[in-house]
């Protein structure tokens, strides 16, 4: 029918049914296209639509119209693509990136360099726009967004198994990186147009030219005003007098000529001569400027005016040698540093028509940063030495360390050298292009002060005075915060030419009691006085000082540190002072706890074997109580590395309690002795009331609650993994599983221990049947119960009045029967005391024999059919745990 080419034949065959139905059927026999055919037509590309239209005669030049049922194959204009919004600035050299690298199986990464890259690391983008990635090497990232950097890294062959997340740190540049060339911001915000100046005084040496206007005012016998323009012949025409040649003459000379002629020709007439509108001149601004070109400016303009017109200098242009060229000769040079630093405009010469302002490339540049007034990158001309550079930068700040400067300089091999220059060498040290000078700051340490730190109301730093003592710094006990430890104050001091750290303690309590006592120690310049709290852990505050002491240790001077652990308020490491005893160490640790066993303590000491030079540990028992009382024999002097252990009183315990609630004669909280049984506590509480429902007793233990919580967390994690592993297409099963997982995660364990209170009370003399009470236990004895509760997969979960003779099935039917999701084979009963009773098989539709007996207070649980959830292994256990916790929580919640 159609003469089809091989290319169109395949396309036509695919859509032949669609075209036939739409094109060849007449109005009567026309048939509608199916939705599938319409969808196939819509999915045609514009080229395919055009090709099919040509096949059926609907080319653009054909006037034949398609039948009304034919979908119009009109090529729609392509939708405009929205511009890609990266949402981030492109990566630039000098930026800092944080790249977080992850791998599913880190232990399987073979190359050590790639293993080290896992985690978060900081990368610096170098001057070439690259980062150096371990094992891979340099990777270009300039211009990319943070997301694109992650994609770029993932494209590397060695990194395809890794995941990346990139963040750009908005770090402000500092040091030499923050420096900018000096002076170029002078032209920031320069005007794009330049209007000739008309409201400024004209200097007397102004040279007139073609286009200038002179205003002549005559008064006296004659009064008039004439505006005389300088013509192209360089002359003006004076009314009633004639022409005067003025071009090329200074304004002062022209003014005298006009005045003389008027006064000679007109008797009784005075004259006032001023400049009117000034001419414009054309000059050229070339070289390293932002907008080089030809500009029309006022005839009063100077070199700086023209540079403002051109947008100012580029950073590649010289600020020190701006040249004014006239008739191919340099007639002036402008050093902008003279203008900026000294306000000197002597070199800013006026312009003439045809002048060229040329900005050559920048010359020698050096950088200076640190403690100077104007850190920047400076261009040098006459300045050759370091002292002249410091003068350009405005001199030193008060915080500057003027005795030395550090210079970074590239050597002949292209590597950086660090040079140190003393203060006396500044004037003789020659600078080289590219030098980076750093003026360091003086030390921030204060020589003549003492500081008060720690658990005080206000941190203080006071001037040290000769003879100053501890009481002079802490003169009032109110300076200490509540619960401060006044008996152990630590003083950190640096001594000797090596500034070694020395730690010394003081008893502020004794210093307050007797100001003249040795406890009121003398202070030295630079001392730090640290006050500790009786409640907080002082080990973190004291650790930095102990680290200093340990770093100074040597073979001849071991670390002056001793350790005390056990029943003291602040166990840990403490500085060992000369002559320090066991009692001093206990004082440093905040004193003993009330549970401390003071009869004896253990002291472990390391001794060196004289023959083998080995270290041996020796354990000694010391009389702690006697040592604290001041016995010189027991209060042994300590040595480095001594280890003191203060033991606990045997069987020490604070009062342990149990709470009895509900149907006991005297409910409340009872103290219990070590090894006491539950029956004994109930007897002390007066026994049970006549309404006590012993079968429903609830015994709670905190230890069990915490254990259940840990087991629930582990179980939830296992269930979560199974849910994640479920196929996506099993939507119904996945929803059920996620709902059950949510219930499991929200379940709060109660820590219930199932007990048979009747048997326990009946055999009170038999300790094997009794319960040993622990601290925090709770016993809840509810009143007699008359209801049976049905929960789980039933139509209406509720409670029913207990009726003798009714079976489990009857109560379920009274709740509307089981739902379609119920697991009828695993229905079970939770007794009032927490016991779980389940049948050994399915008897749902069998006779009543073998059915579990239903008692008052029982809960019938109809669980979810876990086999509906993809037969996952854990779900039967999960459903039972969720329901059992719910039953226990409901029982506890009634109290």
Helical stretch tally: 21
Low-confidence stretches: 1-33, 55-88, 192-196, 840-850
Termini separation comes to 91 Å
- Quick one: how many beta strands? 40
Mean pLDDT rating: 81
SS-derived structural category: alpha+beta
What's the arrangement of strands in the largest beta sheet? 12-11-15-13-14
Topology readout:
Blueprint: H1 6-14, H2 16-23, H3 35-42, H4 46-55, E1 96-102, H5 112-117, E2 119-124, E3 130-133, E4 137-140, H6 146-154, E5 163-169, E6 213-220, E7 224-229, E8 235-238, E9 242-245, H7 251-265, E10 269-275, E11 280-287, E12 293-298, H8 303-309, E13 322-326, E14 329-334, H9 336-342, E15 356-359, E16 364-370, E17 376-380, H10 386-392, E18 404-410, E19 416-422, E20 436-439, E21 449-454, E22 460-463, H11 470-473, E23 484-495, E24 500-506, H12 508-513, E25 528-533, H13 539-551, E26 561-566, E27 572-575, H14 582-588, E28 601-608, E29 615-622, H15 624-628, E30 643-646, E31 656-662, E32 668-672, H16 678-684, E33 698-700, H17 702-724, H18 731-746, E34 752-753, H19 757-762, E35 777-781, E36 787-792, E37 798-801, H20 808-814, E38 828-830, E39 836-838, E40 859-862, H21 875-893
Parallel strand pairs: 11-15, 16-20, 21-25, 26-30, 31-35, 36-40
Antiparallel strand pairs: 1-2, 1-5, 3-4, 6-7, 6-10, 8-9, 11-12, 13-14, 13-15, 16-17, 18-19, 18-20, 21-22, 23-24, 23-25, 26-27, 28-29, 28-30, 31-32, 33-34, 33-35, 36-37, 38-39, 38-40
